[in-house]
Amino acid sequence: MKKQKNNLDEAINALKNEAVPAGPPQETIDTTLQKLTEAGSKTTKNRIIERIKTMKPFTKLAAAAAIIIIAALSITFLDKSVTTAYALEQTIQASHSVLSPHQRL
Amino acid sequence: MQMIDWQSIINKHGPIVWKTAYRLLGNHTDAADCFSETFICALEVSKRQRVRNFPALLVRLATARAIDLLRRQLRESRFCANKADLAAVPSVNPGPAQQLQTQEFAVKLREALAQLPQQEAQVFCLRYLNNMSYRQIAKELGIKKNTAGVLLHRARTKLRDFFKVST
């Protein structure tokens, strides 16, 4: 157990003490600054479009499927509501033509 | 929105971001990608909220991006010791055998970190590679101090198991 713990600690030390260049190359800094300028000038609309463009094809397909399902469901429900409204209107009209109500006891 | 002079931010905090990225990724190409992504993310964050502590935010973002890259490499099976620019950096180790062992440990730890859950790996790196306190980690990740401790403990346990299996 102690050896395994030592291995982990040694690995941490190895990674921590690994020689690392002091700073990024100038080329990387320039590229980053350029990207920051581009990103800063982008509008929200552009960012949304770019985000959609970078989506995986599967994600796009899933999003399209979700939109179609939502549209289909909403049409179904809207149709139902129209039918119900029609039925209600008919019922009201029918109730006007009622002359005498009968009740069975 | 804050008005930020990114040139001065990069000049001031660029080296710590670079070190964080390079230490975790071990090569120039990935570190450069991670470096750019970190600052782009920082820009997005600064648009949403006021940034009070830039170095902590940048270190956190660099760690997260680097872990993401490690995980992607692991998924794509691109993870190998050869990818590291071992010759590019002058080593401080005395003997070749010890140097090799150190490199091996570093590569193994990178591989293990890529297999940990994102938050656990992040807490582990911030604690052990960036020497951040529990309090700082909790503040940066928006979690409780105790949660940071629990995540760190879980990460250590999993890493210990990983080294147990791989040795």
Overview of this protein structure:
- The complex is a heterodimer of chains A (105) and B (167).
- With 105 residues, chain A is mostly helical.
- Chain A has a domain at 41-91.
- Helices cover 79% and strands 0% of the residues of chain A.
- Chain A contains four helices and no strands.
- Chain A has helices at residues 2-17, 26-41, 44-54, 57-96.
- Chain A is elongated and about 100 Å long.
- Chain B is mainly α and 167 residues long.
- Chain B has one domain: Arc Repressor Mutant, subunit A (Orthogonal Bundle), CATH 1.10.10.
- Chain B is globular, with a radius of gyration of 16 Å.
- At the A-B interface, helix 1 and helix 2 of A face helix 1, helix 2, helix 4 and helix 7 of B.
Let me know the CATH homologous superfamily of chain B: Winged helix-like DNA-binding domain superfamily/Winged helix DNA-binding domain
Low-confidence stretches of chain B: none
User: What would you say the CATH architecture of chain B is?
Assistant: Orthogonal Bundle
What would the average pLDDT of chain A be, to the nearest integer? 80
